[in-house]
Amino acid sequence: MEYTNPILAGFYPDPSICRVGDDYYLVNSTFAYYPGIPVFHSKDMVNWKLIGYVIDGNGIESRYDSLGVSRGIFAPTIRYHDGLFYVTCTFVDAGGNFVCTAKNPAGPWSKPVWLPQVSGIDPSLFFDDNGKAYLLYNSVAPDNKPLYQGHRTIRMRGFDINTLRVLDDETILVNGGTDIKEKPVWIEGPHIFKVGGLYYLICAQGGTAEDHSEVVFRSKKMDGLCVPYADNPILTQRDLNPQRNNPITCTGHADLVETQKGTWWAVFLGCQPYPPYEKDYYNTGRETFLAPVTWKSGWPTIVPHGQTVAFHYSYPLPAVEQKDELHYGGNFEYTDEFSGETLDLNWEFLRAPREKWYSLGEKPGWLAMRLRPETCAGKSNPSFLGRRQQHNESSASTAMKFSPAVENEKAGLLVFQNETHFYFLCKSVKNNHPAVELYKSIDNPDSLDGMELVGTRKLDPNAGNKEIYLRIEAVGAHYNFLFSSEAGKWDTLKDSLDASFLSTKVAGGFVGCMYALYATSLGKPSENTAYFNWFKYKGTNEPDTK
What we know:
Elements: E1 2-4, E2 16-20, E3 23-27, E4 33-34, E5 36-42, E6 49-55, E7 72-81, E8 84-92, E9 96-102, E10 113-114, E11 121-127, E12 133-139, E13 153-160, E14 165-166, E15 171-175, E16 188-195, E17 198-205, E18 213-219, E19 227-228, E20 235-236, E21 249-258, E22 264-271, E23 287-296, E24 299-301, E25 312-314, E26 332-336, E27 348-350, E28 358-359, E29 367-370, E30 383-388, E31 393-401, E32 410-418, E33 421-430, E34 433-441, E35 451-458, E36 468-475, E37 478-484, E38 491-498, H1 504-507, E39 514-520, E40 529-540
Antiparallel strand pairs: 1-25, 2-3, 3-5, 4-27, 5-6, 7-8, 8-9, 9-10, 11-12, 12-13, 13-14, 13-15, 16-17, 17-18, 18-19, 18-20, 21-22, 22-23, 23-24, 26-40, 27-30, 28-29, 29-40, 30-39, 31-36, 31-40, 32-33, 32-39, 33-34, 34-35, 36-37, 37-38
């Protein structure tokens, strides 16, 4: 039986994994989205269930204020030791490195314990079998005097598990990377494993774009000389033909886990560009992949040189389906009818909300979202609830009731990459006449709403508060925008708009696109509310590689 990569499709970067008995737990970066650091559970490493978040109501919501979309939560690591789960992470621009603990990985998690002595990013805990614990992290060049751009180090300190504090015994394990004479860049994402009495340190190297890779070092002692593997890197796709079919690029930032069967597997990030590949456009962000690890002459390899990451591998363990749960890999669809008392865990806020501006109880079976002055072009928390674009070929649609009173009141469906790169399909009013509108963002600091009108259509003047249906389709290199006043009868407002505008290559940053329900009054007070009856997603990007 085979599974399909990626195992977590869409914006799920920097994966970290650990095993406790027959259970596997995985976390990812979330940057400025809230709640932060999703925690997934699986029995087979393929079928995952989102069970909670590490950063969720633990009193640090204000730290999200004013963060850019690609700042915030960077590269968490999850580990388990003696009945307790540990997540270490970096809150970039908002506090630095921290550790949280929980007895139950679904939460609640403790408030972050900050680690001000640790200067750098990507902290990772290692618990040795002699009772000692260590914290590894990426930091600056020795004496903060880099020999070249991207010169970094991997450092280590002892860690007190009773006080959750680092010790003062800082050691540089790696200077620069595998061979400093070659000027390797951005050594980061360190993890240590002990196998056969030897210590193995794996790290990402080369940056997170097409030159990304994973490398490995080995040592007989924790504070000893880290010897690089002669056949590094153990994972990269940078040496392959860029014109190959169905490319997976940017692979790296791996974590390893040993199964209860004694086999080893790696989770790592990768990207799936859409044509034209030579420009490496992708909107789905960095996704989580899974591949087997092979050992040769005492060294691990994830993907041998010259080989591609496969879309299909045999299951690592007997498949255990998560009943009635969402799929995160392969081709899938889902519908949220807002029938529960709480939001589905997969919805994300843009930064942490400081007030309750949404409700599932105000109008049962509907999600009510209050219009507020905040906009997605700013750096506050707008009335925005997003779910990932998880496929290059996908669609998101919704049914909405909304009666705009003035032209600044707008609500609808958003496809969002960052503050200056988004499309907004909405209902509004123009010259006292209801209309459906399409906006494209503009990078203009003097613009209040940060967007320009690129399409509009008048609606029936009697539309009032009748349902309107909105739909955004991603078709590889383009987006289509549709609406309807009658279920199932779609009318195209605008088609073939440039999807590369929302790609990571053009927009920059570390995130992927979100489809979002969004309501705003563009900087002005409003008493209005938009109501959403359902949200539907359908996606396919699994190539025919069998």
